[in-house]
Amino acid sequence: MDQHLREARPADLGPATDTLGAAFADYPFTRHTVAADDHQGRVRRLQRMFLERIGLAQGRAWVVPDPGGEIGAVAVWTTPDTDLRVFAEIAPLAQEIAGDRAAASEAAERALQPLRPTHPVWFLATVGVRPDRQGRGLGRVVVEPGLRAADAAGVPCFLETSLASNVAFYRRLGFEVAGEVDIPCGGPRTWAMRRAVPNTPGWAIGAAPTR
């Protein structure tokens, strides 16, 4: 299956966005932080923005394409080389996409900040498998090249998830829970997970995010 795995290209932006939009249509975190009005369209715009402005521009992204031109799975990472100023640049658009949930989104970010590492990491920013492709191992396939690249660079990995079922999946990939928090205003419980570089001591979380 993984013979089709490759790094994402600009031409993948549309189908990869479709996959991420479908995968996150009912995700607890985005349900809480993105307006219900045209929710799926807003989530799709959010994922496209991140994939285009960060993943393809200055991060790393992998896809598993289907023969018919669709994308079965997508994983997008930021790396220590990602210029963090881009987050400030896209913040106004992200706020507009959040709509009437912008305040909830900001509160969620504040709640998560203490769980984020203070040193360089490979941050698994978004990963999704098309609903009709789930259960075939594509999630592992599309995440593993980022893990290998981080290991080769001697850099730990970090992610956040708001699905309890994802915790066991990521543990099988070498992550462990670094902390968890109930997002304010009735938001979902969210787990921060980290993966140390193999054969090195563990590392601590801190108060400032350095994705």
One letter per element, helices H and strands E, the order comes to EHHHEEHHEHEHEE
Could you give me the name of the CATH homologous superfamily? Gcn5-related N-acetyltransferase (GNAT)
Number of domains: 1
Query: In DSSP terms, counting alpha (H) and pi (I) runs of 4 or more, how many helices?
Result: 7
Identify the overall geometry: globular
Low-confidence stretches: 206-211
The first-to-last residue Cα distance is 30 Å
What is the averaged pLDDT score?
92
CATH topology descriptor: Aminopeptidase
Beta-strand percent range: 15-25%
Radius of gyration: 16 Å
Tell me about the biggest sheet?
A: 7 strands, mixed
What is the CATH architecture term? 3-Layer(aba) Sandwich
Q: Order of strands across the biggest sheet?
A: 1-2-3-4-5-7-6
Return the structural class. alpha+beta
Number of strands: 7
The amount of helix comes to: 40-55%
By CATH reckoning, the class would read: Alpha Beta
Summarize the structure in short.
By secondary structure, this protein is α+β, with helices and mostly antiparallel strands.
Output the keywords.
single chain, 211 residues, alpha+beta, Aminopeptidase, 7-stranded mixed β-sheet, 7 helices, 7 strands, globular
Task: Walk me through the topology.
Blueprint: E1 6-7, H1 13-23, H2 28-33, H3 39-58, E2 60-65, E3 71-78, H4 85-98, H5 102-112, E4 122-129, H6 138-153, E5 157-161, H7 164-172, E6 176-182, E7 189-195
Parallel strand pairs: 4-5
Antiparallel strand pairs: 1-2, 2-3, 3-4, 5-7, 6-7
Helix pairs in contact: 1-3, 3-4
